[in-house]
Amino acid sequence: MTLISSTPLLVEARKEGYGVAAFNVHTLEMLQAVAEAAEESRSPLILQTTVGTVKHLGIDYIVGAAKAAAKRASVPIALHLDHCQDFDLILKCMHAGYTSVMIDQSMHPFERNVEMTKKVVEVARALNVNVEAELGKVGGVEDDIHVDEDAAALADPEECQRFVELTGVTTLAPAIGTAHGIYKGEPKIDFDRIQQIAARVDVPLVLHGGSGIPGDHVKRCVSLGMAKMNVATEIKNAFSLALQRSFAERPDELDPRSYMAGAKEIVKALAIEKMTLCGCTNKA
Question: Is CATH 1.20.1440.130 correct for 6-278?
Answer without folding.
Answer: no
